[in-house]
Amino acid sequence: MTDIALPASLAEIAEDFRSASNDLKLQLLLEFSDELPGLPERYVGHLEQLERVDECQSPLFLTVEVGDGDSLDERVVNVFFDAPAEAPTTRGFAGILHEGLDGLTAAQVLAVPDDAPMRFGLAEAVSPLRMRGMVAMLGRIKRQVRAKTAA
Amino acid sequence: MSAEDTKISAYADPERLVTTEWLAEQIAAGAIGGPDGMVLLESDEDVLLYETGHIPGALKIDWHLDLNDPVARDYVDGARFAEVMGARGISRDTTVVLYGDKSNWWAAYALWVFSLFGHEDVRLLDGGRAKWIAEGRELTREVPTPTVVDYPVAERDDAPIRAFKDDVLAHLGKPLIDVRSPGEYSGELLHMPDYPQEGAMRGGHIPGAKSVPWARAANEDGSFKSREELEAIYLEEQGLTPSDDVVAYCRIGERSSHTWFVLTHLLGFDAVRNYDGSWTEWGNSVRVPIEK
Q1: Which residues of B47-60 are buried (b: 16+ CB within 10 A; e: fewer)?
Q2: Taking Cα atoms as reference points, which of B170, B192, B212 lies closest to residue B279?
Q3: Are A30 and B51 inside 8 Å of each other by CB?
Q4: B175-234 pLDDT, tens per residue?
Q5: Which candidate, B149, B80, B161, places its Cα nearest to that of B115?
Q6: What ipTM was assigned to the predicted interfaces of this complex?
Q7: Which of A29, A59, A132 sits opposite B48 (nearest CB)?
Q8: What pTM, to 2 d.p., does this model score?
Q9: Rounded to 5 degrees, what angle do the CA atoms A23, A29, A31 make?
Q10: Which residues of B are catalytic?
């Protein structure tokens, strides 16, 4: 585990999970799944414009938008996800990343440590094998931010 | 007798399957839970699906967390199994009804693990979760609190229904069924479509294995095909007979549990083993023979 700090938004969610019992962790994850926002109108029916995350057990699609600004500290990142209701764990992971990353600056998103998903104490509640999807989602989000800010 | 009941009565072990209609009646009659009641368990691929809503009275069992050993690639031992069962109010003579997502893959897998421990009365809900929902039946998020009971520590007896790699090597030349998708069987794909994380170093199949994708045994709604239809596939087309010694495998042993259930309980085969190491073991092993 690295010492790089999580952004405050993610750190707060991580603390909520870490302090919860395994049963409560699943309830929290279910809340994130229930509350994952749907795609905005412009993406509905246009999944081909999103990136498919194959590492998830069920198909998940995501995309990133980066706002204008003079530096990475000024450019705001928005993330969008699409995952079916029958895949609540995947939706829950997406919900955590949405709540923790959406609205941060590009610099903040790029500074999120790659091992962030392992800092929620979720592996013991859902089994370590199921955590790969969340690691992959974070990796793709950062890659998209990098690509969309490289110019 | 309804058409579904007639279908079920024709199977080799009709007591192993129940209909959604029957389950709904049992729930209405208060036969689920309670000291002498049956226990209804949901077993899904997604660890959170139960929490989004389940059949009233159902408890959850998770293949990763409850049935797999947390360290070794193996199933839990007798002591841990006893805890898992006892915590759900299951005694050795309790009737357990299992159901789940994906045409009961993980429910069949749980049933097979229960059978390793010799739990006598365990059944599947024909069609599983999807059929129950498609029929507009009730779901709830209410989680029952079972009374914990003592379940005896039963010795796991792998030999009759579980095959290991060495068993399969010794079995070459006898009937083997590969239940994966055609692309995985041919070696074109190193993993199941949509599941790249469970891949292997080599593609192909175990020499002599016949390709019979598991889903051929299921109807659109997730229920099992009739005995006649199943016999047309496994007996007539594949030339198997119920006295054959058969090994079934897939990628981690969950889809082949479905086929194991079909051959053993619906068609009455005597000696079917599930090779749970499956392609994620065989396709990663050094110097085992592979056919493409």
Answers
A1: bbbbbbbbbbbbbb
A2: B192
A3: yes
A4: 999 999 898 899 887 766 555 555 788 999 999 999 999 999 999 999 999 999 999 999
A5: B161
A6: 0.85
A7: A29
A8: 0.91
A9: 110
A10: 250
